[in-house]
Design a protein that fits this description.
Glucose Permease (Domain IIA), 35% helix, 2 domains, 298 residues, single chain, 20% strand, two-stranded parallel ribbon, 9-stranded antiparallel sheet
Length: 298
């Protein structure tokens, strides 16, 4: 079923277009027979506002949950919703302008459905912000370099449990990111220091499937006391030890699948006093969310 969801989405978009075309044709026939009564544009503008909020929400969150054809179909649906609502609002405004001397009035009951639609739209937009927003804003986040080179994909990341497996598991990892190579295996890929600092902990002799969920790990503490954790590192691959000073871009170890990792990947998160610190990656200072693709070069 899920592999064909894009077909269902396209059918919904087609149904919306067909319904709008039919309504416009019916309205045209009515106008030809007799002028329509004076009509206010206010309810239509409320519907338009709701549609814009929903369309923006779909565009902003679809990529967190869908990929491939489904993602393309959802974006098409968002554009259709926006275009059709803009058309309806335009028609209503034209009618209102044509009949403005008749002082059209609107009964309160006519605001109920558009008002509910607008409320749902605003709630959808707020939901989108909660899924994509940086906890505490950019001022609370730490800017770091990408710890890998090449093209990678985020498999879990974001400010909520819907997109981030590590959220509240524990709290210190609320802004954790897990990443894998977008093509090919991640095992053996070099991991680099994302910040300047001092290695406060380095463990490299743990084997895959060990009791410690983090597996092999390097923890770097910066001058402000923020710790960067890099976990699931390959056994016997560490190039640093506790007490070493490291610089951004310095090779630390290799990517692995130690600890609780099912597949080779890099887990990275920042914390201070057991509280999470959001990370902004690269020159663009991107807050990485689930399904994000990024590419870096040495």
């Amino acid at each position: 079923m899920l592999e064909h969801i894009h077909i269902i989405i396209y059918l919904i978009a087609a149904a919306l277009v067909a319904a709008t075309v039919a309504r416009l044709l019916r309205d045209k026939k009515r106008r030809a027979a007799a002028p329509p009564p004076a009509q206010s544009a206010k309810p239509a503008l409320l519907n338009f506002t709701a549609a814009v909020c929903v369309a923006v929400s779909i565009l902003g969150t679809a990529g967190l949950f869908f990929q491939g054809q489904a993602l393309i179909a959802l974006r098409v649906l968002a554009c259709v919703i926006f275009a059709l609502s803009a058309m309806d609002a335009g028609v209503a405004i034209r009618r209102w302008y044509e009949n403005i001397l008749e002082k059209p009035t609107v009964r309160r009951s006519e605001f109920i459905l558009p008002g509910v639609a607008a409320l749902i739209g605003f709630l959808a937009l707020e939901f989108t912000v909660s899924l994509c927003g940086i906890p505490g804003g950019k001022d609370s986040a730490l800017a770091v370099d990408y710890p890998v080179h090449g093209e990678w994909k985020v498999v879990t990341g974001g400010p909520t449990a819907l997109t981030n497996y590590h959220h509240n598991n524990p709290v210190a990892q609320n802004s954790a990111v897990d990443m894998v190579r977008s093509q090919g295996a991640s095992e053996g890929e070099t991991i680099y220091a994302p910040i300047d600092g001092v290695v406060s902990k380095a463990v490299g002799d743990r084997s895959p499937g060990g009791a410690e969920p983090e597996g092999n790990i390097v923890i770097i503490k910066d001058a402000k006391g923020i710790e960067i954790w890099l976990a699931h590192l390959q056994q016997n691959s560490l190039l640093v030890q506790a007490g070493d000073s490291v610089k951004r871009g310095q090779a630390l170890a290799k990517c692995g699948a130690t600890g609780s990792a099912d597949v080779a990947h890099l887990h990275i998160h920042a914390q201070k006093d057991n509280q999470p610190v959001p990370l902004l990656f690269g020159p663009a200072k991107k807050f990485l969310l689930r399904n994000a693709l990024f590419q870096t070069t040495p």
